[in-house]
């Protein structure tokens, strides 16, 4: 492998590459429009939410995929077909940055808490090779069970996913890049040498500013990240 091939670029999806609303909310809108989501599916989601919201407020909402229980997994393919050639709306700056990484011979990854089937739809809309690490849904008999298979890729799980991908592809994390927009992306950014905050929320922006990381508004040209030595001199973690 050349030095360039040992460099990875890890992108969060929602709010970093894809403009709001999130991929999952867009998919939910499709399911509602197709009458695939019924009151029974919604009731199942609400029951689980009510049972878990007190001990685990985050899990009651973010990890609750009960609304998908019993729906055929091929609905993700139907959603992709409904998008025609345009695909989900992406920030131009993020796409430009991906094209730069491809031109440099770097490996590009989508690391996201979104559903893996939706991340795959996005990846097929991009103009270069992309590897995916996302939240997997359990499938039985061609239908989703409403359960997550494995871990939800958020927070520390994102950092773990980046390290696993680096080991799998023989990447140098110190020379690699990561792009994220929220606190849940922090472990992912902390795993690499070159970090960029994209459309950062208030608390995340404060951290990025204090660490001297490049900050990009996704609607503007994305700045070229500093070299690792420059980041180290600024006290980057």
Percent strand: 15-25%
Elements, N to C (H/E)? EHHHHHEHEEEHEHEHEH
Examine the secondary-structure arrangement and name the CATH architecture of the domain at 4-20 and 90-136 and 146-233: 3-Layer(aba) Sandwich
Termini, distance in Å? 27 Å
Task: Give me the number of helical elements.
Answer: 10
Number of DSSP-assigned strands: 8
CATH homologous superfamily placement of the domain at 4-20 and 90-136 and 146-233:
HAD superfamily/HAD-like
Largest sheet: 6 strands, parallel
Give the integer mean of the pLDDT values: 86
* Overall geometric form: globular
Helix content: 25-40%
- Strand adjacency order, main sheet: 3-2-1-6-7-8
CATH C-level class of the domain at 4-20 and 90-136 and 146-233 is Alpha Beta
Gyration radius over CA? 18 Å
Catalogue the unreliable spans.
220-237
CATH topology of the domain at 4-20 and 90-136 and 146-233: Rossmann fold
Q: Given the helix and strand composition, which structural class is it?
A: alpha/beta
Main features:
237 residues; alpha/beta; Rossmann fold; two-stranded antiparallel ribbon; 10 helices; 40% helix; 17% strand
């Amino acid at each position: 492998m050349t030095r360039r091939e040992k460099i990875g670029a890890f992108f969060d999806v929602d709010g970093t590459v894809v403009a709001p609303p999130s991929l999952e909310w867009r998919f939910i809108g499709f399911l509602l429009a197709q009458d695939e989501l019924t009151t029974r599916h919604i009731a199942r989601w609400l029951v689980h939410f009510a049972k878990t919201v007190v001990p685990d407020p985050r899990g009651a909402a973010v990890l609750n995929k009960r609304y998908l229980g019993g729906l055929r997994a091929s609905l993700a393919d139907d959603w992709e077909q409904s998008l025609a050639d345009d695909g989900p709306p992406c920030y131009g700056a993020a796409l430009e940055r991906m094209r730069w990484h491809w031109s440099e011979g770097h490996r590009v990854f989508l690391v996201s808490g979104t559903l893996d089937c939706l991340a795959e739809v996005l990846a097929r809309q991009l103009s270069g090779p992309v590897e995916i690490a996302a939240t997997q849904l359990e499938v039985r008999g061609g239908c989703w069970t409403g359960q997550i298979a494995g871990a939800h890729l958020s927070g520390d799980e994102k950092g773990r996913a980046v390290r696993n991908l680096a080991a799998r592809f023989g990447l140098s994390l110190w020379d690699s890049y990561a792009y994220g927009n929220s606190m849940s992306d922090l472990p992912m950014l902390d795993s690499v040498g070159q970090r960029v905050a994209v459309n950062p929320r208030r608390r995340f922006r404060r951290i990025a500013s204090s660490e001297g990381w490049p900050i990009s508004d996704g609607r503007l040209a994305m700045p070229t990240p500093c070299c690792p030595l420059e980041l180290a001199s600024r006290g980057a973690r």
